Amino acid sequence: MNSVQDLLYAADDLHLANNTRSCVQNDPLFIFHIAQNISQTGAWPGLNLTQSCCEEIDVIKEIAPQACKTSFEQCLPGKHVDQALQWLQRIGVIKYLLPELEATVALRQEGQRKHKDVWEHTVLVVKQTVPDVTMRWAALLHDIGKVPTRTFMPNGSVHFRGHALVGAKMFDKISKRLPFEPQEKTKIRFLIAEHLRCAQYSRAWTDSAVRRFAKDMEPYCKDLLNLSRADITSKIPGKRQTLLQGIHDLEQRIKSLKEQDEQPALLPKGFGASIMKEFNLPPSKKIGLIKEAVEDLIERNELQKQQETDYYVDWLKSNRHIITAIVEG
Predict the structure, then answer these.
(1) pLDDT of 41
(2) 317 in Cβ contact with 309 (< 8 Å)
(3) DSSP per-residue codes, 239-303
(4) CA 206 to chain CA mean position, Å
């Protein structure tokens, strides 16, 4: 029995363990084949088989970086990717392939810690992320910067200030070891560096702030929103739903403003400057209020839309009470 399926579902005995050693020695990628099956089925091989893989783990050093990355990636889209990652960490693949990620495992071993288990959190985030290889790479590495940035405060709290940007710089080194495509590398690095941005959103943000956020996050705004949803793993009652609602609200505002901005402008460009010149008014918020009053009339079909500037200026001259009410109000 040399197939991965045979090894996964057969009785866990020493004969099969020895058979596993032979398979791994003959084909180092066999370890990844097992992990790929775990990612699909969620079933770990028996303890003896797992121990055999641990003992033969040095063979992966024989695998070319491209083949190693490709084989590892085939585990990422699976429904049970969390189990595959846990198994790969257990046998030593993560330590060899991604030592920066392996370092997050050690954070959970300190009894006095007062922060979430970074490794377990990461595994869950990967599982919750959309099953896209690039997105799951970003999820897998999004918190590696927490290891060098962890700081214990006198009051017992723990901070990871700047961990997103530090993590992005750490990914630069990873991408020199593993052959990422340029576009793939750019996207993963961006998502790692910016993965905290959505959490900064507040309903108090102005429309201009939302527009600026969407512009700054392009072309990965949708991906960042998806990663931010996956990054919510809190078990505190109500907190998860509150955070998810915040991301939903941000996404809806971005969508609404985009649709609004794609509509033809109601007033001609430079109309505000024409108001100031014609009525001898200084720049102020009141110019905007006058424009809003005219736009309101257009939306109520009391004025025609998309006319020349003179059309609206002439109307205001004939209805100076509107200017007076706003300026003196």
Answers:
(1) 94
(2) no
(3) HHHHHHHHHHHHHHHHHHHHHHHHSPPSS-TTHHHHHHHHTT--SSHHHHHHHHHHHHHHHTTSS
(4) 23
Q: How confident is the model at residue 18 (pLDDT cuts 50, 70, 90)?
A: low
Full-model pTM: 0.80
* Mean pLDDT (whole number) for 24-50: 89
Whether the domain at 1-97 and the domain at 111-263 fall into the same CATH topology: no
User: What average pLDDT score do residues 13-26 get?
Assistant: 67
Specify the CATH number for 1-97; select among 1.10.3470, 1.10.10, 1.10.110, 1.50.40.
1.10.110
The helix/strand/coil state of 151 is: strand
For the chain, strand residue ranges (E) read 151-152, 158-159
Predicted local distance difference test score (pLDDT) of residue 24: 74
Separation CA 100–CA 62 (nearest Å): 21
The whole-angstrom separation of Cα 76 and Cα 35 is 10
Question: What pLDDT shows up at residue 11?
Answer: 47
Residue type, 10: A
- Degrees (nearest 5) of the Cα angle 290, 294, 299? 145
For residue 61, pLDDT over 80 is answered with: yes
Span 10-30, average pLDDT: 68
The pLDDT of residue 7: 54
Residue 7's CB is within 10 A of a number of other CB atoms, namely 24
Q: Say whether pLDDT at 108 is over 50.
A: yes
261 CB neighbour count, 10 Å cutoff = 11
Q: Report long-range pairs for 307-315 (Cβ below 8 Å, ≥24 apart).
A: 307/268, 308/268, 309/268, 309/270, 309/271, 309/274, 312/267, 312/268, 312/271, 313/274, 313/275, 313/278
Q: How far apart are CA 145 and CA 23, in angstroms?
A: 36
